[in-house]
Amino acid sequence: MKRFIASILFFIALLSFAAAPPFIPPGYAANGYGATALTGGTAGCLDAINGATLVDGDKAFVVTTTQMYVYNMDASSATAESSPTVISPDSNAGDKRWELAYIVTNSRGIDEGRYAADAQASDTYVITLSPVPAAYYTGMSIYFEPNTANTGAATLNVNALGAKSIVKNTADALQTGDIEAGQIVGVVYDGANFQMMNPASIFGAAAFTAGDTVYATAASTFAKLAIGAANTKNFVNAAGTAPEWANGIKVGTFSRNTATETGTQAVTGVGFKPSHVIFFAVVGNTPQVSVGVSDGSYSYCIQNVHAEVADAWSYNATYCIFLDEGANIYYQGILTAFGADGFTITWTKTGAKSGTAEIHYIAFR
C-alpha cells in the first residue's frame, strides 16, 4: 500500500511539471516529463517538448481524462510517428522518439470511452467515441451497438480513423447473421483488423429450426440442411460434397434369359449408388432358387440343388446368384460394379441352360 501511494504521489508531481522544465526524480539519471495531451504542438502536449532537451531513457507520463500513457525516449529510434505508439517531438526531433510503454485506463474511460452506437444502415459500421482516440493501437478494445444486422463481410470505422475489417476466428470474414441489430458487439484491434469476440452465431447462417443439420461448405463457411422427411436417413450426396436426406433402400426386380451366353447385365432405376444388394432368384416353377448378397467385393449365396440331389441346398462364396438346372447345367451371377443408378451383374453359363430367371433385389445405399 505504501508503494502504491508513493507511485500516485509521484505521478501527481510529474503532472505539475507539464510543459515545464524537466523534473528529475531522486536516483534517476534520466529526466521525467508530464503532459496532458499526446499531440497538438501546444503547451501541455507531449510533442511540444523540445527535442534538444531530451536524452535517451527519458520518461514521460501523459494523463488525459480517461487514460494515462507511459513513454520511454529512444534517442536513436527514427521510427515514423504513429500516435499513440510513437510520438515525435515537433522541434529538434532528429531520431528521437517517444515510444509507448503501456496504457492505463480508468473505469470511467472504459464506460464512456469504449462504447458508442452505430447509426449506419449497412455493413460499414461507423461509431464516434468520446473521448476521441488518437489512433488505433494493437489491443484496443471497443464495444458498439449496430444499427443493422450484417449481410456479409463488414467493417468498422471509429472516429474517422479508417474503416477496418471485422473478422472472427482470428481472420475469417463475417457471414450473414454474425452481427444482429441491437446486439452489443465487442471487438479488439489486432494491428490490422477488428477481431469480433461475440458473433451472434458461430455458424453465421439464417435462422435454424428444430432438427436442422449444420455442415461446412468450405473452411469456416457453414450452411444448414433442413430436417428431412420422417423415417429418412442422412447420407452424403452423390458428389460427395454435402449431406442430404433420403430413404436409402430400393426394392426392385429384373429378369434374365438363362439361355443367353455369358455376359454382363446393367440394372438401373435404383435411384442411387448402392453399397450392397440382396438377391432372390427363381426360374419359373422349378426348384431353381437362390438367395445371395454382395457388397461388390464379396459375394455369397445359398442355392437349391434339388435337380441334382433331392431336397438339397448348397452354399458358395463366389456368386450372389446361382440357378441349378441339373448336373453341370447352371447359371451363375456375380455383382461386378456399382453405378450411380444401379449395378452390373456378370453372368456365367454352364451347359445347355434354359428358362427365364426372375430376380428380385433389395438395394441399400
What can you see in these coordinates?
This protein is mostly beta strands. The protein folds into four domains: 2-105, no CATH class; 109-196, no CATH class; 213-246, no CATH class; 249-364, Immunoglobulin-like (Sandwich). It contains two helices and 27 strands. The model is unreliable at 1-10, 12-24 and 107-112 (pLDDT under 50).
What are the defining features of this structure?
365 residues; disordered N terminus; 8-stranded mixed β-sheet; mainly beta; 2 helices; single chain; 6-stranded antiparallel β-sheet; 4 domains
Whole-number total of structural domains: 4
Please tell me how large the radius of gyration is: 40 Å
What is the overall pLDDT average?
Answer: 87
> Level of helix content?
under 10%
Uncertain ranges: 1-10, 12-24, 107-112
